User: Fold ABC-type quaternary amine transporter from Prauserella muralis.
Amino acid sequence: DVLPTSESADPVVRVEHLAKRFRRRDGSTVDAIDDVSFDVQAGDLVVLLGPSGCGKTTLLRSIAGLETPDDGVISFGDRVQFSPAEGINVPPERRGVSMVFQSYALWPHMTAFRNVAYPLESRGPGRRNKAETAKRVRRALGLVGIPELEQQYAAQMSGGQQQRVALARALVSNDALVLFDEPLSNVDAKVREQLRVELLSLQRELGFAAIFVTHDQSEAMQLGTRIAVLNKGRIVQLASPLEVYTKPANQYVAKFVGTMNEVLGTVTATKGETAEVKTDLGVLTGRIGGGVDIGDHVAAMWRPESATLSTDEPVAANRLAGRVKASLFLGAATEQVITVDGREVRVQVPGAAVLPGGSDVWIEISEADLLVLPAEDA
Ligand code: ATP
Assistant:
């Protein structure tokens, strides 16, 4: 019930060397969480991002206490919640966290009011009087913008409305930590966008820390104060959205976060922070984004929006000759699909710039915008 102050020494959540292995029916095993450590500070919204099966949900459920890991330590503030070495495993209802699920998990034949009141009534029987409960429920319904739905049954609501009720239920206990498991993936695009904005402002206003699971990279960028990118049960990068976007730790992160063009090649020279890469499209020079050395097999990568297009051959070192395959007007920008030596490259230019198919163009990429990362085997 008590929010930590920013001066408190302990993070809201600390996860240390967490591990969880599942045994499948056929006897094989999968490391759903593989030696994961991270902290969530007051005011943080940490997004767990990764493709299906990378372990996001298992990690979140372990923090909530709904899953029992094999090893590691989970603490909230100065209280240990899970530590097999110390014989500690606090049950979910006593961890003081709230959770919002993809499926809403509301009681369909209860009103919004009763659904939201439930955590207050089940957690502290007799602790709060009716008037106090009603006040808090109404405040929570007000916060999520649906005070008028108080007496509606959940079954009679739209997906977006149900998710607002679920959010109100998560906020009503005023917990320092709220966990979100893909809460917006069942609502339509417009409502999803609106709920993201509201979630962010609520989080800032109320000051709770949050962990938010998604496989949607643009959602992760919009919401996260930090993004933990997961691959096969491991955190492969934990950084701000800007850093993950501009300095992806490896080829996996670069490909997963946003669109990336990529040409494979071999490093022929390095100089300070730059590397020269021999590719079958010619020599490209870029910024070293990971440990690479001469002779290494690498990927030279760049974003569609960081290249420029011209009809005259540029003098820049990194230039590729191509032909327009399609020109897709997106509204604020136009995406050019360009064929370069048989492969497809995407370049995004601002505004309406539809080019005739078949036009010959030059693509230019600055050294700073070309990222050289170790190539991971497919
Ligand atoms: P999704 O987005 O599809 O939910 P995820 O990233 O949340 O994926 P998890 O659901 O955490 O991934 O699953 C991680 C791995 O653990 C997967 O390989 C999954 O098949 C496996 N797994 C999860 N739960 C169990 C279980 N109860 N029994 C066996 N294997 C499981």
